Amino acid sequence: LGIEKFKSDAEERRFATLVHWGYGTGWGAVRGLLRAAGLSPTVATGGHFAAVWGSEQVTLPALAVAPPVTMWGGKEVAIDAWHHAVYVVATAVAYELVDRSA
After folding, report:
1. What is the DSSP string of 79-100?
2. Which pLDDT value is given to residue 18?
3. Whether the predicted model's global pTM rises above the 0.90 cut
């Protein structure tokens, strides 16, 4: 994106928030597509987790945002996996509730 430095910490936090919302929304749409393709809730959730966490493990080191997971400690891997699992489960619950009411 050509951003070398932010003018302030507040601008950097705002950008990070926008990136996370965009990332989460985009991957949420993928979860919907998995269910629309006929996958069961369990299989769609597992596939969603694999896609979200797997893409992070490739994309962030490629963008020099984070080191490869092989350089992380066990605690950092567990925390990161937990955060993504919470996102995936929350997305699954939200999708199933919306789908049920439709």
Report:
1. HHHHHHHHHHHHHHHHHHHHHH
2. 92
3. no
